[in-house]
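Usage example:
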Amino acid sequence: DTAVSQTPKYLVTQMGNDKSIKCEQNLGHDTMYWYKQDSKKFLKIMFSYNNKELIINETVPNRFSPKSPDKAHLNLHINSLELGDSAVYFCASSHGPRSNTGELFFGEGSRLTVL
Amino acid sequence: AQSVTQLGSHVSVSEGALVLLRCNYSSSVPPYLFWYVQYPNQGLQLLLKYTTGATLVKGINGFEAEFKKSETSFHLTKPSAHMSDAAEYFCAVSERANAGKSTFGDGTTLTVKP
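Running the assembly step on the lines above writes:
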């Protein structure tokens, strides 16, 4: 029973297309995140939602739009895909922002390849 | 503001040898510190964490790390490497007031030679 699950795991698409990645967590956490890991394995936070409210919005192009229909789900929609968007996108969750643990629980990643 | 520096992007050890992965952090407030491991084609999983209390923390798979405030370090060690330890290791820091927003180091690839 996967704690943080993302779909799809692999995504290959053409430049200019629009695509979405979905994430669900069954840990009862209040906060969810999207991280981007590039080809050099650098990991950078993109967005965070706490109880459906956007709380972190790092410098990310407007083509990326997160949506959280409820606190267990966080989706990422990407418009007009560019070559530089090719990366592995990780969903993660944690207890609320002021929890006393701070650890992140990651999904297995969605590898996006833009041709 | 917070940041993490992992010294050495690649570390290679022989099976049975000591593993030492270095991490230095910068934080304007008392930090939470973490080590995560990433196996090929998988997500990151927590190895261990320091929040408060004892500065020597033990994690899974025989790893441990020591928080040294005076040196702003949180190095990861394991007495005897196993082939299965080969992976990417990430050190991360977060501020207690915003525990979920972690800043990650650039990662260290650990290779274990037979």
